[in-house]
Amino acid sequence: MEQELELLKEVNHLHDRGFRFAVTFPEVRQSLLEMVLPTNIKMLLNMTTIKSFKEIYLDETLNTSICDSTFCINYRGSNKFLLVFIEHQSSLDYKMAIRVEDYKNAIRKIIYRNRRKDDERPLPAIYPVILYHGERHYSAPTSIMDLIYDPAGIEKSDDISSPQLINLNKLEDNSLLRYGWAGILCFCFKHVRRSHHDESVLILLRHLDNLEGHNAKDFSDFMLKYFCAGIDMSAGQFRAIFSQHNCTQQLEGKVMTLAESFVQEGIEKGIEKGKIDCAQALLREGMEKEFIEKTIGIDLEKLL
Question: How far is 86 from 127, CA to CA, in rounded Å?
Fold first, then answer.
């Protein structure tokens, strides 16, 4: 059970890193916000003014994931802006509504800390979004009111807003992929846990092949590595699927380099495991630590 929990932590960490790195690309931020914001809100905004929250408010005390997931967008013809916070979720969390309120309050505190005490400007509105791609049906409450027993409706008068839930599992692939960069990211989130990946790998390859822009190469490299790490695909499996796809020479070189890195990583992991097993065996036999480190070339401080 402990091993399964450790594996789950590693998988969730992989997806968190994937999301946080992907949104560093301006093209991803732009298309993702185009995708998640309702039309009536987008009509009020200048969608060419998107900035990361940490570009405006630099504060080391703010949770890094909040910084990386919050974006500022100016209203049309104004220097005032809306804050959009996107919480990426790969598992159910029945306290999500409370977490969202905590995040919103943390963001507001940062804004206040960056203002003078006599600054009376109103705080920007915060629009929260839950981007969900877990395997289970999303049944967790999205409103904090769903967690409160309030038959008299005392707190409902406060009109507490709920975050918008975007359940990627319920969206068609074509609907996702029409959003370009963000569509590719969401497509990977949606399919990374599924058992049959041949078709999804081919679809991903086709859309990465058609991607254009200054950062297209770096983003394509990253998404291929993220997706294949998430589905735990071997180099041989990857090459077999890739052989079915007619692509440009540029993508072919990129994919073959990736496949070779799979092989090299596998070799390096095997060598490292062999060193660890050998060191542990010598330790059990009572050999001196200095001798083991010098002979095998391993740091026992990290191992013990």
Answer: 9
Tens digit of pLDDT for each residue in 97-139? 888 888 888 888 888 887 788 888 888 999 999 888 888 888 8
Count how many residues are written for the chain. Answer: 304
Q: How far is Cα 27 from Cα 179, in angstroms, rounded to an integer?
A: 10
For residues 79 and 94, what is the distance between their CA atoms, to the nearest angstrom? 37
Rounded Cα distance, 190 and 133, in Å: 5
283 neighbors 295 (Cβ within 8 angstroms):
no
- Joined tokens for residue 283: 């330790």
Select from 103, 29, 105, 102 the least CA-distant residue to 72: 29
Query: For position 93, what pLDDT does the model report?
Result: 84
Q: What is the pLDDT of residues 132-157, one digit of tens each?
A: 888 888 888 888 878 887 777 766 65
Task: Answer positive or negative: Cα dihedral of 204, 179, 18, 132.
Answer: negative
**Least confident segment among 3-17, 89-103, 104-118, 201-215:** 3-17
**Nearest CA to 184 among 300, 73, 19, 39?**
19
How far, in Å, are 24, 28, 45, 55, 195 from residue 50 at the CA level?
12, 11, 10, 10, 36
This prediction's pTM: 0.68
State residue 243's pLDDT score: 66
**230, 188 Cβ separation under 8 angstroms:** yes
Domain segments of the chain: what residues?
A: 2-193, 201-304
